Amino acid sequence: MMSNNTSKVAVIGTGNIGKNLAANLVKGNRPVIIASRKTEDAEALANNLGFLATATTVKSAIKEADIIIMAVWFDTIKELFKTYSSELQGKIIIDPSNPIAPDGDGGFKKIIGENESSGEILAGLLPKGATFAKAFGTLGAGSLESEAHRTSEKAVLFYATDDTGINGKIEELIRDSGFDAYRVGGIDQSIRIEVFGDLHEFGALGKAITSNEVAGKI
Hints:
Elements: E1 9-12, H1 16-27, E2 32-35, H2 39-49, E3 53-56, H3 58-64, E4 67-70, H4 74-83, E5 92-95, E6 100-102, E7 108-110, H5 118-124, E8 131-135, H6 141-146, E9 156-161, H7 167-176, E10 180-185
Parallel strand pairs: 1-2, 1-4, 2-3, 4-5, 5-8, 9-10
Antiparallel strand pairs: 6-7, 8-9
């Protein structure tokens, strides 16, 4: 059965995060538009996910969707902002990215200042007329796959936005993807839900948690 939510959602990016986000939304009966620079990758993922998933180009996905999840590298989002600034007007942009790169020792290093967050940087570059939320990035790809749609207590995905008018749409999207939603505040709180932050799996949080475990951590 298809979701009753009418906002059209696009996932741009077919890496580990994008694949799991698209799969979780389809499992929650939410139609999803999938796009990638490599159209064949988007088509392969859509074919694998079934009739609720469709593939198209990045430009067409941005044009068709109301909500766009940019599941690509931090620097790629900045490029997309520049390339599609006109097309992004009126859209809700969701950023799950983390400003990290491999450190050469099997781990990751932050590619921006220690006290900077990708959410605040991207919000400052936001195309005119678009709204912005940091979401879907508080768990790694493995946990996004394994913790979604639990039949017992659901795991939490944190989000942050300055535009409280979109809270409902962000929260229904997170619920459709199989998690409970919890707003931590405005974009100035983004650093807490990015890698190394106190509310990130690869930070002080250390694991996926439930709503009952949120108290005392906010």
